[in-house]
Amino acid sequence: MTSPWSRWRTVVALLAAVVATATTAGTARAAGGTGAPPPMADRFGLTQVEPAVGGPTDFYLTVTTPEVTGKHHIKIILPSGYYDDPARRYPVLYFLHGSPDDPVQQNYPALTSSNAMITVIPDGGARGWYTNWLNQNTQLGAQNWENFHLDQVIPFIDANLRTVATKKGRAVAGVSMGGFGALHYAQDRPELFSQTASLSGDIDLSADSMDLRLAVVASLIDAQGALCGSASGFCGDPGNDPYKPGVDSDALFGTPYPVFNADWRWNAADPSQHMDKLAGVGVSVYVGNGRGVPTDLEFWLEGASKHVKDHMDALGMPYYYVDYGDGSAWGTRCNGGHNGGCWEQDLRDLIPRLERAFAS
């Protein structure tokens, strides 16, 4: 016969289990339903210096790192159902912004459309160019962007979120400067990424695209300063120049001038000349034609993307390539230029393809 004390202990145990379950669910809702972003522990050299900003599934962190001087934002977009199943893990898209943007400005609706993957947008600087600079002694201080992203941000995300922490579970994509970064990172560390994509990327820095190489130099030496200081709107608000202070033209990859192979570091970093390193990685390239207007950067990027395509064809590589020309194929929001309207359409095409690749 069961004693009253035994029955009481059973009731208490059941009540405790119910409370524990409710508390767990309540914590998930508080952190992920109507509350704040999830807690993220400092790891791998990253230190959070301000509270996270945003909601439970779309927020950004502010961190410091010895690898790059200053404060840096990391924007994180979680699937809407992230808190519903504590056992589920998600693949991750690392999305690299262009110059001179910031992660917080990356508000493409397509990036919030996926319920099947996490999106992480790390700060790449106004002209960091997703690389470890040759000269670490400029006025800007430490500029090891590749170390920051690949050796710190990725393991930090894997340690703090429920990710699929494998090559199969990661993709890297980017727009403009970030398009260079996406191919460059996948070439340098192909063991990290199963997919890479360039959206209007500066993906040919060889002497064949000297115009783009000099555009990179212009961002370093602040050649845009006269425009940024005017009322042209080139850099947003008049008087705002994100490329200050200017640094030496050789700070990134050494001399850009192709004389007696002095520019070998540019060639070593140039994605177009090393597409063979992406064997086994899914490659996507999106580009327009700038409506044939040379003052639109897209006009020049179309040529760079065609050079990359030619190299892949010569290697017999599989790839996905879209030249949407004047944008008419993408609809009214894209005019074929170097702008967010076209990149939103690119992402609407890319993200479902990434989801299928992750799920395969």
Characterization of the model:
This protein is an alpha/beta fold. It folds into two domains: 1-35; 40-359, Rossmann fold (3-Layer(aba) Sandwich), CATH 3.40.50. The chain has helices at 4-32, 145-160, 177-188, 210-221, 225-228, 264-269, 297-315, 340-359, and strands at residues 47-54, 58-65, 68-77, 92-96, 118-122, 170-175, 195-199, 282-287, 320-323. Strands 1-2-3-5-4-6-7-8-9 form a nine-stranded mixed beta sheet, sandwiched between helices. The chain is globular, with a radius of gyration of 23 Å. The protein starts with a helix and ends with a helix. Residues 1-30 and 229-234 have low confidence and may be disordered.
The CATH topology of the largest domain corresponds to Rossmann fold
Overall radius of gyration: 23 Å
State which percent range the strand residues make up: 15-25%
CATH class of the largest domain: Alpha Beta
Say how many strands there are: 9
Number of helices: 8
Describe this protein with a few key phrases.
Rossmann fold, 9 strands, 2 domains, nine-stranded mixed sheet, alpha/beta, disordered N terminus, single chain, 360 residues
Question: How are the elements arranged and paired?
Answer:
Blueprint: H1 4-32, E1 47-54, E2 58-65, E3 68-77, E4 92-96, E5 118-122, H2 145-160, E6 170-175, H3 177-188, E7 195-199, H4 210-221, H5 225-228, H6 264-269, E8 282-287, H7 297-315, E9 320-323, H8 340-359
Parallel strand pairs: 4-5, 4-6, 6-7, 7-8, 8-9
Antiparallel strand pairs: 1-2, 2-3, 3-5
